[in-house]
TrEMBL record:
Domain of life: Bacteria
Cofactors required: FAD
Protein name (database record): Monooxygenase
Pfam families in the record: Pyr_redox_3 (PF13738)
The entry's keywords: FAD, Flavoprotein, Monooxygenase, NADP, Oxidoreductase
Tagged with keyword Lyase: no
Family to which the UniProt record says this protein belongs: Belongs to the FAD-binding monooxygenase family.
Length: 532
């Protein structure tokens, strides 16, 4: 090789090195370091932000991919959208709302409540809207997370993921659906620009969203076809307007609102054992549901198709007083089979039934047991959280922290869902755990991290799964979204909310290894050592 060519190549290498160094320096300059990065601005994320401020921590950001707060209550705007948990229980204990308009409030009121909490507790300065998280990578040398978003790069000592299990819709891959000539959308992505008047509408699914949508859109549709793979158990919805006198009382005497919330909570705590230990105690509840069905549906053939074959409670018990009556309307057809194929505008069920439709609405739930956020979390060895969970399903310690991913927490993680009460109770329990986790890191000093011991996580999950075996969710004879592809229940908490709060009140350091940054004498490069 000639000297001139060698010098040329050397110069090019030097130039590329300088360019890479420049890019690294520029990226580093653009990075923002925070103590805590919170992912998501729904109930979990806003609750985490409020708790951080109340703990005296203001060095944090809330990263939200959308342009406003609200989470699932921002995304789900379908007709009839409302909560099936009483309003006074579906709100933060630290932010009671005396002005709920109904006993079961609608989507617009719940979202307005979250906006109010965001303002009252001064969370807005911490919001980074339009910042979709693309990747979170643990740096084992620096002991921090690098969070890449669509709006910039952040580094954080601790990441709190509050993305929530009801964030990303699940739509089945139906053969021929790409050739459907009409509108197709999921309930959580409702097309409000579409006028359903005179349209033949098909709704796929009979979950909590579908039983609210069907009564709301039936009067407008020319024809409504409901594809029912499995009939749900439905109880009457005891919804009513909260009177002005009640609201005045709660405003003037806040203790009355606290008492109301406590009574609602207590009733549900009493019910827990029927779901978790003694499913036979649900027989009277099932009798009431059968009575509700019999009173609403006089046609014995239709009533038979709407009667579940599994024990009540195995799937979530749905609340509606107008769902059954809507199914008896002349323009409504119930297909007792799943949608299996689409041929143009013709929808073909698994039992061969054919229907014509102009609009296809999927009420098929969300990616709960394979949460997409897990594909974006990367440990120090380049392994994603999704890969870590691939073999044995979603697992964590106390539903909050996961082995192999130090200083990374979830609000509403594996096995923290509920079948009969308010998820806000579980969120607040995790916020207690988060607060103590950060206190422990403060006591341990800068340059430390907590890493879950695999043995501690395994022991916790063995106990959870052992208790799960006798619950109605596992023994009730149904297949539900609580179960993953291998039939494991990685979603539901098999106990009471009071028990979960006790178990997450504080961090047990015996369940963690303490990682401390140290400096190598030979190269002055940060390294890590584990302390027990």
């Amino acid at each position: 090789m000639s000297r001139q060519r060698h010098e040329q190549q050397h110069g090019q290498k030097h130039q590329r090195k300088q360019e890479r160094q420049y890019e690294d320096e520029r990226e580093s300059a653009q990075r923002t370091h925070v103590r805590v990065a919170v992912i998501g601005a729904g109930f979990g994320g806003i609750g985490a932000a409020v708790r951080l401020r109340r703990e005296g921590i203001t060095d944090f950001v809330v990263l939200e991919r959308a342009d406003s707060v609200g989470g699932t209550w921002r995304d789900n705007t379908y007709p009839g959208c409302a909560c099936d948990v009483p309003s006074h229980l579906y709100s933060f204990s630290f932010a009671p709302n005396p002005d709920w308009p109904r006993t079961f409030s609608g989507q617009e009121h719940i979202r307005a409540y979250l906006e109010h909490v965001t303002d009252v507790f001064r969370v807005r300065p911490h919001l980074r809207l339009g910042h979709e998280v693309r990747r979170m990578a643990w740096d084992p040398d620096a002991l921090h997370w690098t969070v890449e978003t669509s709006g910039g790069v952040f580094t954080a000592d601790v990441v709190v993921s509050a993305a929530g299990p009801l964030s990303d819709p699940k739509v089945p891959d139906i053969p021929g659906i790409d050739g459907f000539p009409g509108e197709v959308f999921h309930t959580s992505r409702w097309n409000h620009g579409l006028d359903l008047r005179g349209k033949r509408v098909a709704v796929v699914g009979t979950g909590a969203s579908a039983i609210q949508i069907v009564p709301a859109i039936q009067p407008r549709a020319e024809r409504l076809t409901l594809f029912q793979r499995t009939p749900p158990w439905v109880m009457p919805r005891m919804d009513r307007r909260i009177s002005d006198a009640e609201r005045w009382l709660h405003r003037q005497f806040p203790a009355t609102g606290t008492l109301r919330r406590g009574l609602l909570w207590g009733v549900r705590e009493i019910q827990v054992s029927a779901f978790t230990r003694q499913p036979a105690r649900l027989v009277p509840v099932e009798a009431l549901a059968r009575l509700h069905l019999a009173r609403s549906i006089k046609d014995p053939g239709l009533r038979a198709r709407l009667t579940p074959s599994y024990r009540i409670g195995c799937k979530r018990i749905l609340l509606s007083s107008d769902y059954y009556p809507t199914l008896t309307r002349p323009n409504v057809t119930v297909v007792s089979s799943a949608l299996s194929e689409v041929r143009g505008s013709t929808l073909i069920a698994a039992d061969g039934t054919q229907s014509e439709a102009d609009v296809l609405v999927f009420g098929t739930g969300f990616r709960v047991t394979d949460v997409p956020i897990a594909e974006r979390v990367v440990d120090g060895d380049g392994r994603t959280l999704a890969e870590a969970w691939e073999k044995d399903g979603m697992q964590s310690l106390r539903g909050a922290t996961t082995a192999g991913f130090p200083n990374w927490m979830t609000v509403i993680g594996p096995n923290t869902g509920l079948g009969n009460s308010s998820m806000i109770l579980m969120i607040e329990s995790h916020l207690n755990y988060m607060a103590d986790y950060l206190r422990q890191l403060t006591v341990l000093g800068r340059g430390t991290a907590l890493a879950v011991r695999p043995a501690a996580q395994a022991a916790w999950n063995r106990k959870v799964q052992a208790r799960m075996e006798r619950t109605v969710w596992n023994s009730g004879g149904c297949t539900s979204w609580y179960l993953d592809a291998q039939g494991r229940n990685t979603t539901i908490w098999p106990g009471s909310t009071g028990e979960f709060r006790r178990l997450t009140r504080e961090v047990d350091l015996a369940e963690y290894d303490i990682l401390r940054a140290r400096v190598r004498a030979d190269a002055s490069v940060p390294a890590v050592e584990a302390a027990r």
